Amino acid sequence: MTQTRTVIVLAAGEGKRMKSALPKVLHPLLGRTLLGHVLAAAAPLRPDRTLVVVGHGADQVTAHLAEIAPEATPVVQPQQRGTGNAVRVALDAVPEVDGTVVVLNGDVPLLRPETVAALVETHESSGAAATVLTAEVANPTGLGRIVRTPDGMLERIVEERDASPEERQIREINAGIYAFDAAQLRAMLGKLTTDNDQGEEYLTDVFGLLVADGQTIAAHPAADPTETLGCNDRVELAGLRRRLRDRINERWMRAGVTITDPETTWIDVTVTLAQDVVIDPNTQLKGATTVAEGATIGPDTTLIDTAVGEKATVLRSHVVGAEIGPEATIGPYAYLRPGTRLARQVKIGTFVETKNAEIGTGTKVPHLSYVGDATIGEHTNIGAATVFVNYDGVHKHRTVIGSYARTGADNMFVAPVTIGDGAYTAAGSVIVKDVPPGALGVARGQQRNIEGWVARRRPGTDSAAAAERALRAADARAAESASDTEAAQSEPMHDETGRPNDRLVARDTHIA
């Protein structure tokens, strides 16, 4: 008969040393919060119920649970009076619980699902009343110690502040992760006291009580001690982040992804990568980002909730909530905002920003442009310094540009406006009316030059002096040209023998 399973996650603590208005368990770590990582580690157990004990910042933690794990039930611990009290509060909320109860701390983000499953398997197969996950560490300072009998059997768990000098030398530590028989756990929780240095009910005291009652208790050693690491401040959180980064990067490299500089590459646990993806230095991949086979990302690139197609390239760019088609090229220094949808072989170039834009196959937006609330067809070219004027101060409007169109540099498209297939627009135009297919749209004023304006309005400036020099030089060239013309007109075309004048011939053929 399959055991019923209940998971209890302890997430009520304030985490004072984090020095943050955010509850400790809600601090983010490569795609999930600390609490989110712990819940993900427990999820493969397929528990019949998951209880999360909340206290400090209960409203924030409860709201987060509703987003990431709506099946989990928050249970409020009104006063944080220790881990034993927290588990008792959780079990009081569900009196019908039986079978196996798994208790996890909410701040151990490196814990693997395989380790939790192995702990539960050891517990259920041995018939123990309680089983603790342990680890051998080089520096056990600050951690509870595993005290064993002379024959190696688990005797009890002692918190460091209550440990003797000899017990503090023990390097086998309590990972704060347990499996209990529900009935035995309930019975022993009622016997807990606050007779300790902190004046709290320690869940770890349950093990000593079970031994005194003649029950079997067990220990399951973690294969990797780093999985048991928690954090109490932001320095320790940064250390966990680095360890998780290395674990994630190693997994992807072994799966066929090239990461040229793992130390500057940060990939969320929620990201999906295909084989033969190349990730260059200083790149961050976040959220639900997916990258297809053969794509190159980076250097100096951030992708958030973005899908990248096969053999696409994204270089020195920031992309949020976009779809990048196969063989597209992005950047450098592009900004793709939510709602951007790029088809195959689209080019988005330097200092281009897009938002809520659908851009067709082979179309190019090469430089210095803003494309917002727009639909652009296939194989169209958008000229440099183009602005899609989509906002009238109250509402957003859409611009539609057809296929095989050519728009001039420094265009403004004042939406709503449509440019037909194969149409052109002249450089410097402000387009406010539709341009039919195959037409040339021109919307700019007639050029007018006002002679002498600088001399009259900006006398004494460097510009006025430069203009005066240029005008004098032009006058001198004009005078010399007029003199040459007059001399040529007076010079005979032939000499006295009737032969052509060689000097005039040379001058006219531009070899003199």
Question: How would you portray this structure in words?
Answer:
The chain is 24% helix and 27% strand. The chain is of the alpha/beta class and 512 residues long. The strands form seven sheets. Strands 13, 14, 16, 17, 19, 20, 22, 23, 25, 26, 28, 30, 33 and 36 form a 14-stranded parallel sheet that branches. The N and C termini lie far apart (111 Å).
Please summarize what this structure is.
By secondary structure, the chain is α/β, with parallel strands linked by helices. The protein contains 10 helices and 39 strands.
> What is the overall shape?
elongated
Count every beta strand, where a strand is a DSSP E run of 2 or more residues.
Answer: 39
Main β-sheet description: 14 strands, parallel
The parts where pLDDT drops under 50 for at least 5 residues are none
Average pLDDT, rounded to a whole number, is 93
Oligomer: single chain
Which range best describes the helical content: under 10%, 10-25%, 25-40%, 40-55%, 55-70% or over 70%?
A: 10-25%
Total number of helices? 10
Q: What proportion of the residues form beta strands (DSSP E)?
A: 25-35%
Rg for CA atoms: 38 Å
Distance separating the two termini: 111 Å
Class from helix and strand fractions: alpha/beta
